[in-house]
Amino acid sequence: xxDATATDITYQLRPMDNNDLESAYQLTxxxxxxxxxEDWATMLKLSHTVGLEIDGKLVGTACSVVQGQHASIGLxxxxxxxxxxxxxxxxxxxxxxxxxxxxxxxxxxxxxxxLYEKLGFHVYGRIKQFQGNAKCPTDxxxxxxxxxxxxxxxxxxxxxxxxxxxxSASKMERTKVAEEIxxxxxxxxxxxxxxxxxxxxxxxxxxxxxAIGPVVAQNQSEATTLIESIxxxxxxxxxxxxxxxxxxxxxxLLKWNLQQADDVTLMSLGPHPYSEQAPYTYxxxxxxxx
Length: 290
Prior knowledge:
The chain is α+β, with helices and mostly antiparallel strands and 290 residues long.
């Protein structure tokens, strides 16, 4: 635990644990972020954490998920009444120290981007968030799968292959993240070509409803096939997907009544996690995890 003073406010920086779950949830609720208690529980399980406490009350959070030589940073939160006092920077410096010598990456809002730039982060891309109650377009399905391609449900025997694919698409070691996401997913759809695994998409509860992510595929067509198979099955559900803009999934998502809700900046300190060849990550787990 670290005691410190910023602008005449004495605060403590300390690790978070499950006893902080309700306070952390209320912090993001006050900011109108969609995270459920269950989403916070997942982050606390996966992350190194820093909590910022004033007068015995949790007023700030920061999380870092180690993924091999990379680490994501997310859920950098400071309560409204303590904004503008430099506490966000204190949280960032503390969580960066916990991440060690790893390559760091995060998603930045417009408000947070100047701070991250001061800390040495550079822009490497953007993610668009789409969400809404899925509605089947009139032209779906536009055709059948080729004879080489097939969709099927995840089985426990797929465990190692799907983690290998997920790691390959990100150039990170994501076993711990993958296993946690598999455990909470309601469905994982696999795409095979000539009985060889090509990609997958996970569908799970998150935020105001459900999320599709991660989605890993060899190309846009196969990513679309995976995503549409889930959207068609769960029409009417409130579904969210966070996708890097270079993959141009926007036209398809709009057809399914998923509207753009946010546009955030991808930033890294050191090499960013990105595959220059297939497979690719067409939808991230969450903005905080990558």
